[in-house]
Amino acid sequence: MKHIFESSNIIFVNVSVELVDDYLIMVNDIEHVDRFIGGDHREFTKEDEIKWVNKKIEASSLVYSMIEKASGAFIGNIELMDASCLTEKELGIAITYKMQDKGYGTEAIKAILDYGFNTLNLDKIILRTRTFNKRAIHVYKKCGFKEYNRDDTHIYMEITKEKR
Predict the structure, then answer these.
(1) CATH for 3-125?
(2) Beta bridge partners of 129
(3) Would the N or C end of the chain have less CB density within 10 A of its end CB?
(4) Is residue 160 within 8 Å of residue 124, measured between CB atoms?
């Protein structure tokens, strides 16, 4: 796994087939993960995850697995997805249940913002989250995101390089 960047407690690496078993635990956890990220509530197989990893690698996607420095444990995945233009990306993050409520979400988001704005030279990062995901909304606001729209299902937030 190639080390891309790091923060105080997290190493960000390229997604890898080596981590497929960890990905499966996370994405198949409907109660603690899937319902917040808008998954399709189906059981993913090892073959599904291997295809997903290979697709992300082939497309040179900006998706990273987060590894805890102290233990080497899998934390989750974070991604900057294509948005409306080259200097704007959409943030997505999922943290496996056993690593939630430990501050990794805030740390990971701050690190990906630094990476996105300073290394990738992005101007804006947007996101959408479920209206009922109060914990995520709190973290996004703490990291500087501002709400710009909402509907019955989602809250849409953004942060710009200049207003950071």
Answers:
(1) 3.40.630.30
(2) 155
(3) C
(4) yes
Q: Where are the alpha helices (DSSP H) in 4-120?
A: 20-27, 35-37, 46-58, 104-114
Give the pLDDT confidence score for residue 97 in this predicted structure: 86
How many CB atoms are located within 10 Å of the residue 135 CB?
A: 13
pLDDT digits over 46-100, tens only? 998 899 999 999 999 999 999 999 999 999 999 999 866 778 999 999 998 899 9
Domain coordinates of the chain in residue numbers?
3-125
Supply 126's token pair. 């947007």
DSSP reduced 3-state for 55: helix
Q: What is the pTM of this model?
A: 0.91
pLDDT the model gives residue 164: 67
Helix, strand, coil shares of the chain as percentages rounded to 5? 35, 30, 30
Q: How far is CA 81 from CA 85, 124, 127, in A?
A: 11, 12, 10
Closest by Cα among 30, 49, 50, 52 to 41 = 30
